[in-house]
Design brief:
Helices cover about 30% and strands about 30% of the residues. By secondary structure, the chain is of the alpha+beta class.
Length: about 130
């Protein structure tokens, strides 16, 4: 085991709730920015493969308990006008829910396209003590 002591890096003024909120932000940011620009097709198997791969990848990060990613198929351009055309993942095509547990705090957060904002919002849905 290594000699990692989180108190060497994180302020002792942080509550467990604040630290858990920080951690979920890291996970959401990583998921969103890793997905942005990934080539995609409307093929169901391609979409499912990307979803499962990214869920597994983000699940490897510390404190992650679950990741559910949904790429919105209806927003993927399936028609190719030339053999060079392809679509890519962008904010309006991403819907995700990530749950982490840090010490005795569980945080559930989402990435979701909010049409009235015209923006892929990342937000905390719920924080609870275990």
């Amino acid at each position: 085991m290594n000699d990692y002591d989180e108190n060497d890096y994180f302020s002792s003024d942080l509550s467990n709730r604040e630290r858990a909120t920080f951690e979920i932000g890291i996970k959401l940011g990583a998921l969103y920015h890793l997905l942005s620009g990934v080539p995609v097709s409307s093929d169901k198997k391609v979409i499912e493969s990307i979803e499962k791969g990214f869920e597994a990848s983000i699940s490897c990060q510390p404190y992650v308990k679950s990741v559910k990613l949904k790429i919105i198929k209806d927003k993927i351009e399936g028609d190719k006008s030339t053999e060079l055309d392809y679509d890519e993942i962008s904010g309006e095509k991403i819907k995700a829910v990530v749950t982490i547990e840090y010490k005795l705090i569980r945080v559930v957060a989402k990435i979701e396209w909010i049409e009235k904002l015209h923006y892929p919002l990342m937000f905390v849905e719920k924080i609870e003590e275990l």
